[in-house]
């Protein structure tokens, strides 16, 4: 088979949200795919620090920070942090609206105590009630992993802002000021229109799709020879550009409607089973 480039979202796709151990079935599938001449990449909203432990399993590169930091075969292809004025402006307008946020730099993530409390203690722990991004952050903050106090932030380049707002209306001013610069990728935590909203701000200069294109350009490969796996709405730009788009059975209804294929859930060896179905292993 002609060489394919395989792009795997992490949380809710390669492994359960917030976990750090790749299932054995996926580890073996990735090994076999690479042995068969294909290349495999992580394609995630996580920053490099939260991604790096997984790179030891054997990957050819990564699209981190939702496309803001991209590497292939040991070479950095994309490094596009926010402008400092954007970071400060967003912190101010979100704070004024009663929203909390975390700042994701390349090697650290900074969060306020109220953000930690909301994720770790206020959200229900019932399966299916949190999207994968929210569940990742709840677990991350509950167990104190990789989060530094916001007071320790001293201007390091920031690639992404993650937020929690009391309701969607609280985001109105932020959207008015910044929607031309950032995609507000958001989800309600419940069915109530006034429910808490969590999400992330993705710079319009890049996304997972542009990260994939950068890797294809570096390797001289066609987008037609790419396959992307995802589970949530922050994977839309990835699945828009790949030759074959795959949504996990545990994925969002919106993504399922737009993807070419639906594979078994992350808890049912979905990645390994779909790679086999596609004839890559």
TrEMBL record:
Q: Which GO terms describe its cellular component?
A: cytosol
GO MF term list: magnesium ion binding; phosphatase activity
Which InterPro entries does the entry link to?
Answer: Cof (IPR000150), HAD-like_sf (IPR036412), HAD_sf (IPR023214)
Per the UniProt record, one Pfam family is Hydrolase_3
Query: Which domain of life does this protein belong to?
Result: Bacteria
Under SUPFAM superfamilies, the record lists:
HAD-like
Recorded protein name is: Cof-like hydrolase
